[in-house]
Amino acid sequence: MITRIMDVSTEPLDMKCIKEAGKILIDGGLVAFPTETVYGLGGDATDKEASKKIYAAKGRPSDNPLIVHIAEFKQLESIAKDLPDTAAKLANAFWPGPLTMVVNKNDVIPYETTGGLDTVAVRMPNNPVALALIKESGCMIAAPSANTSGRPSPTKASHVYEDLSGKIDAILDGGEVDIGLESTIVDLTEDVVTILRPGYINMEMLKQVVGEVRIDPGIVYNDKGTSSGARPKAPGMRYKHYAPKGDLTIISGAEDVVISTINHKAREAIKNGSKVGIIATSETANRYTDGQVLIIGDRSDEGSIAHNLYDILRQFDELNVDIIFSESFATPNMGQAIMNRLLKAAGQKVIEVQENML
């Protein structure tokens, strides 16, 4: 299969490309497209064979549910059963945008799309290409991130091509995405709105709309991590994700001690013949003495850290590093989401350092 790349990065939007991509979806094919979070790998959400193709292209476990992307609230109503009032409240506040709602499903969406669950995850992306594709195709689009399962999520069309060239029909190249981390996922099937995956829309923002909000114990949400082992209700709750090829470890603690520890460990690894990468911020980068240092962003601008995370991990792959050390990023608003992804990429490997450890 030859994967076509269609440039839709300029304005006005090239509707010829959108129509061609929509026809691919209607015919049961797969199209990667940009959203405001990451690139998604799309197929017709109502077509169980298309969903099977998504799992096969990604090498994704079939019990890991897909998110259904819609362009109008009435589409959510058409696939949900017993839709709670909180859905409309959250949609009014955050849609289109990086919020996914998990609701009870009816028979419109097949189990092949929901990973065998009686619930369905739904969101309305805030991206003109994504919305145009949904509307033009007439399809609700099932779309996980457009990468090989377990790899860092794609924030550029080139990332998608690297992972999925020859496995999917087309890529709509809309340029680099805005946010760079996947959507917040909330479960609306229980009495209390429950965060299943942290993202740009944080707990305080949700509380302002619906009142009480809790965090599912099955997700990792702090530096040390926690996991319940429960069956996942949302994408990414069970499996290792976002991992670079190099062995990633997070070093957490006071800034000076973290930097000293990373410098020490980098020197030792290099002595032993390993190629080392270091994830730093613009504030700390010049304090590292060894290894390949890449700047993820500014601590004063946590959005820059989120935006660059996956691209940094892929850059280290290109540099063929063996070992990666990263600072911890407990930032005020997006820190939970950033650390959730970074911990999964590291396979939960965190070293807590103190003054007397060196």
**Structural class by SSE content:** alpha/beta
N- to C-terminal separation?
Answer: 54 Å
The amount of helix comes to 25-40%
- Tally the helices: 11
| Shape summary | globular
| Spatial ordering of strands, largest sheet | 1-8-2-3-7-4-6-5-9-10-11
Task: Give the DSSP E fraction (strand runs of 2 or more residues).
Answer: 15-25%
How big is the Rg? 20 Å
Order of helices and strands, N to C?
Answer: EHEEHEHHEHEHEHEEEHEEHEEHEHE
Query: What's the β-strand tally?
Result: 16
Overall pLDDT metric: 92
The description of the largest β-sheet is: 11 strands, mixed
Query: Any low-confidence stretches, pLDDT <50, length ≥5?
Result: 220-231
How are the SSEs ordered, and which strands pair?
Layout: E1 4-7, H1 15-26, E2 31-34, E3 39-44, H2 48-58, E4 67-69, H3 73-79, H4 85-94, E5 99-104, H5 111-114, E6 119-123, H6 128-137, E7 141-142, H7 157-164, E8 170-173, E9 184-187, E10 193-197, H8 203-210, E11 213-215, E12 247-252, H9 255-271, E13 276-280, E14 292-295, H10 302-318, E15 323-327, H11 335-345, E16 350-352
Parallel strand pairs: 1-8, 2-8, 4-6, 5-9, 10-11, 12-15, 12-16, 13-14, 13-15
Antiparallel strand pairs: 2-3, 3-7, 4-7, 5-6, 9-10
Question: What is shown here, in short?
Answer:
This protein is of the alpha/beta class and 358 residues long. The chain has eleven helices and 16 strands.
